[in-house]
Amino acid sequence: MTFNKCSVRGKLYGYMMDEAGNEVQDIEKLNAIDFQGKDSDFEWYDKKLLDAIEQNDNDVHNFFTLLSLCHTVMSEEKNGKIIYQAQSSDDHALVSASRTFDFAFII
User: Fold this and answer.
1) Rounded mean pLDDT of 42-67?
2) How far, in Å, CA of 93 to CA of 70, rounded?
3) Region 27-35: what's the mean pLDDT?
């Protein structure tokens, strides 16, 4: 599983629209946001979510805080990096996405 889209209090994030207002189906044509090496496997295209975090949107902060806390993932440190081990690929994707957006689960 990958973290591609979310809804926070009715606001949709991750839905990319073209000039005509239609959802872009082939996101490979878009440029992914550069998270400066935080997670090389993670790709996100919608800057609105980053803007909401930077503007301290309380609902978005609560959303990511809960994602980074409510799961079954175990974390461990190896060579100075936090590694997540999860039984569920869903939990792993959500916790990894949270970390990329600077809401990290650390033991």
Assistant:
1) 92
2) 13
3) 75
